[in-house]
Amino acid sequence: MAKIDRRREKQRRLRQKSIERFFRRKQKKNAWVKFCNPSAWVAIIMGATILALIPFILAGIDLGYGDSIYMYGIYAIFTLLILYTVFITVNFVIRMRREAIKVAGRYAFTKKLLESYELRSIFASALALICNLIYMAFLWIMAVRSASIWYASLAVYCILLMAARGGIIYEGWRNEHRSEEEQLQPNEIQKDNLKICTYCGILLITVTLSLTVAVVRMLDVGADFRIARFMVYVFTAFTLYKVISVISQFIKGRTKSDFLLFSVRYINFAATLVSILTLQTAIFAAFPPAFDASLANAISGAIVCLALVGLGIRMILFSTKHKKNLTEELKEQEQTDNNAKEQVD
Fold first, then answer.
1. Contact of 162 with 125, CB cutoff 8 Å
2. Does pLDDT of 257 surpass 60?
3. So what's the pLDDT on residue 197?
4. For residues 61 and 308, what is the distance between their CA atoms, to the nearest angstrom?
5. 3-state class of 116 per DSSP?
6. Cβ(207)–Cβ(159) below 8 Å
7. To 10 degrees, the CA torsion angle through 273, 139, 159, 162?
8. Residue 287 and residue 228: Cα distance in Å, rounded?
9. Which string of DSSP letters, residue by residue, matches 124-150?
10. In this structure, how many other beta carbons lie within 10 angstroms of the beta carbon of residue 236?
11. Does pTM top 0.85 for this prediction?
12. pLDDT mean across residues, the chain
């Protein structure tokens, strides 16, 4: 009887320890969740502390206490606060993205956007077209006000880029609204998409003409691109976003065989190259270097123009090659159908 009681007592203690461990793990998990997702008051206090430390640190450096051990302690606290702020901001963005995806999944159009990479690419091109329209209006206003050939050539570039993106969007819209009879002929659909690829390639080569005018102007009288210094940082952030976006598109789209996506990738790549050139010109205009900036801009412009011509030729050759393959496939298919009919007869 005593042995049974001791065994029961031992089992009871083991169960109690297991329950305690479970609650300790849960408390640790809850503490980590609270650490990753603090309340609004904690975030406000942290932001106020960071803002209060900035003038304090600047005043300490100005008074000559920048190398003191106390200031190094303040630097460490400030760095930790910044890192924690970045950490909770990233967590907040991830959480909001998950919630946005849940909400988007409730509606037919947004659900289709989430499921189709091709449709997302076309939709992104439509948004880019709207941005190009606004940017083009800004460039024409600046070209008229400052009598700048640089602004005018960029405005012409925007018009041609809008034409290319408009063609892609129109073909994407046609693909979504084709009849059932047309959808039964995928080769014909692909041939139409390849026509857009050829059209975009020709436009890229045409874009080079407008940029060549700007490059020659740079060599003639120097870059006449003027911009406020704070806008350089905006241009830098925007160009960095475009570079990351283009790299992401090439990585995600390398396994896709859709010809419209091919056109989207190359048009966005061309736009990114021109953005890099514009950013360089803006930086040299806002922060004049010790060397000849006009020559550096002209060399970069010439490289971008050659790259655009190369992209355009690549798109034309790509579409021509695949058109030929599709035509051969259609002929083989027709021949097979004719042979089958002859055998039936």
1. no
2. yes
3. 86
4. 50
5. coil
6. no
7. 70
8. 10
9. HHHHHHHHHHHHHHHHHHHHHHHT-HH
10. 13
11. no
12. 76
